[in-house]
């Protein structure tokens, strides 16, 4: 019997365009069910796709703080989320919830 080798799936490798990044984040918002750390992790995936050093610089954060904030282990402050969203070229928007 031959041994099967697997590699860890990295979503960041598949986030190439701003539209793909926005669609991924939108899907994560729907999936999160109010879990801010889950959203932070999704932003971390997008930041890795864009380049952490660049995103950290554009957000005015150190790389280390950015990694910690977007690790998914805790919920970062809303100000951090807004800075990162801006650095990623993404916007939050509100939509009426029907249901």
Which helices and strands, and how do they pair?
Blueprint: H1 18-32, H2 36-50, H3 52-59, H4 63-69, H5 78-88
Helix pairs in contact: 1-2, 2-5, 3-4, 3-5
The largest β sheet comes out as: none
Separation of the first and last Cα atoms:
52 Å
Nearest-angstrom radius of gyration? 15 Å
**Percent of sequence in beta strands:** under 5%
Mean pLDDT: 91
> How many strand segments?
0
**Number of separate structural domains:** 1
Count of runs of 4 or more consecutive helical residues: 5
Q: What would you call the shape?
A: globular
Helix/strand-derived category reads mainly alpha
Unreliable parts:
none
Task: Describe the overall structure.
The chain is an all-alpha fold and 99 residues long. It has one domain. Helices cover 57% and strands 0% of the residues. It has five helices and no strands. It has helices at residues 18-32, 36-50, 52-59, 63-69, 78-88. Helix 3 (52-59) packs across helix 5. The mean pLDDT is 91.
């Amino acid at each position: 019997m031959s041994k099967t080798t697997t590699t860890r799936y990295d979503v960041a490798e598949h986030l190439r365009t701003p539209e793909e990044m926005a669609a991924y984040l939108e899907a994560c918002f729907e999936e999160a069910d109010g879990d801010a750390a889950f959203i932070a992790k999704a932003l971390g995936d997008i930041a890795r796709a864009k380049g952490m050093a660049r995103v950290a610089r554009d957000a005015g954060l150190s790389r280390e703080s950015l990694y910690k904030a977007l690790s998914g282990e805790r919920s970062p402050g809303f100000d951090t989320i807004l800075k990162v969203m801006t650095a990623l070229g993404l916007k939050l928007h509100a939509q009426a919830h029907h249901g």
